[in-house]
Specification:
16 strands
Length: 395
């Protein structure tokens, strides 16, 4: 299962692409036959010292960059031995690396024999943490695999475990973990006091990792998306992470289809809404979340219609936090590299801010990405976080 086969419509999140294979553990096949993995995201304790621009992979495998080193291996400057006709030394300098006993670094075949850095205590602990118990298991569609791998991490209160798929078609991208979701989870974990005991609604929750982060501080979270298989995976992730807090907020996994005008009220559907839940949503919700859900123009339009409708009907003033990754693509229509999905998102954001319906005023502002990382991923300049505040218009 280490080899990922791509088709013309396959999409793979950079989070999974950069994550070492040792962090993925296949546990089952979902209802449509896709392999389902469990990945672990460790909440960083020294987040204030974590370099947000450092790559995810180098953070994992690079070891301690502040360790002592041999000064003899430092680059040094030496003057070029050439002189001018007046015997004045030339100002040219070259940088060379002093290597002593080069022959000692070669094996008997003449190949360079690298000397590995000895493992220190932190390396040993990290290797122990990522070691997996592997058992051969034959899986069928919809069948559960071994759960031993889950149980052995119940003692780690600082690890978020997420079931997800990899290399999915575009319509199943919600089954993967995306960087913008980790960015929004970072913001929540760092500003947990803002969301203390609130009621929150997440739109397009996907695997549910952002709702799980919110549950460490909020009272109630409505974690919503569409599709039986995706909602089932999301509910499994909620169960997997009950260990994160003794008094973890209540996460209710519900279906919310942006293309439908009403809530699903079918009592036969496990993720439907009751009248009381809809009333509670409108009476108590003060925070809305959306993470990396604007990748298709028609869905983005539907999202903003849903945002407008819900925030307009909430009893209390509310705030939406929406994260996005700016993605560049070459398009035949423009014969150039563009950011069509991002540009359409910004256009919708601008339209929302300038709505004059006489009922609700929307205020849009960009949130600086200066808060520290609490989760280990590659944070770069094309990740953005936006804040939309909705308040009633004074009459």
């Amino acid at each position: 299962m280490d080899v990922i086969r791509f088709t013309c419509d396959t999409v793979l999140s950079d989070v999974h692409l950069l994550m070492p294979n040792s962090q993925h553990f296949m546990v089952r096949l979902n209802a449509v036959g896709q392999p389902v993995f469990i990945s672990r995201f460790k909440i960083l304790k020294d987040c204030d010292n974590f370099d947000g621009k450092e790559s995810y992979q180098s953070k994992l495998v690079g070891g301690n960059r502040n360790e002592s080193h041999d000064p003899s291996e430092e680059p040094v400057e030496v003057q070029n031995c050439k002189t001018t006709g007046d015997s004045e030394p030339c100002n040219e300098s070259v940088e060379v690396t002093v290597v002593q006993n080069l022959d000692a670094l070669l094996d008997e075949d003449g190949d360079l024999d690298l000397i590995r850095r000895p493992l220190d205590a932190s390396d040993t602990e990290q290797l122990e943490f990522y070691r997996l118990m592997v058992h051969p298991v034959i899986l069928s569609k919809g069948e559960e695999g071994t759960r031993e791998v889950e149980d052995q991490y119940d003692s780690y209160p600082d690890v978020i475990r997420i079931e997800h798929t990899m290399a999915t078609p575009l319509e199943d991208v919600g089954k993967q973990v995306w960087r913008a979701a980790l960015l929004l989870a970072d913001y929540i974990l760092h500003n947990h006091f803002i969301f203390k005991n609130c009621t929150a609604l997440e739109l397009g929750a996907g695997t549910g990792i952002t709702s799980i982060a919110m549950a460490t501080t909020a009272k109630t979270i409505y974690c919503t998306d569409v599709g039986d298989d995706l909602l089932n995976m999301c509910e499994k992730n909620v169960t997997l992470n009950r260990h994160l807090a003794e008094q973890m907020g209540e996460i209710q996994v519900k279906e919310l289809d942006w293309l439908q005008s009403d809530f699903c009220l079918d009592p036969e559907f496990p993720y439907s809404w009751s009248e009381d839940e809809i009333a509670s949503l409108h009476d108590d919700t003060t925070v809305l979340l959306a993470a990396d859900v604007c990748y298709d123009s028609s869905l983005t339009d539907a999202l903003f219609r849903t945002i407008y409708k819900i925030m307009n009907n909430l009893k209390n003033p509310s705030t939406l936090y929406i994260s996005i990754e700016k993605r560049f693509n070459f398009t035949l229509r423009h014969m150039d590299i563009t950011c069509e999905a991002y540009d359409h998102f910004r256009s919708c954001l601008n339209d929302l801010e300038h709505i004059t319906d006489g009922k609700t005023k929307f205020t849009v502002e960009s949130v600086p990405i200066t808060f520290p990382q609490h989760l280990d991923y590659e944070r770069f300049e094309h990740l953005e976080l936006w804040k939309v505040t909705a308040s009633p218009v004074s009459t």
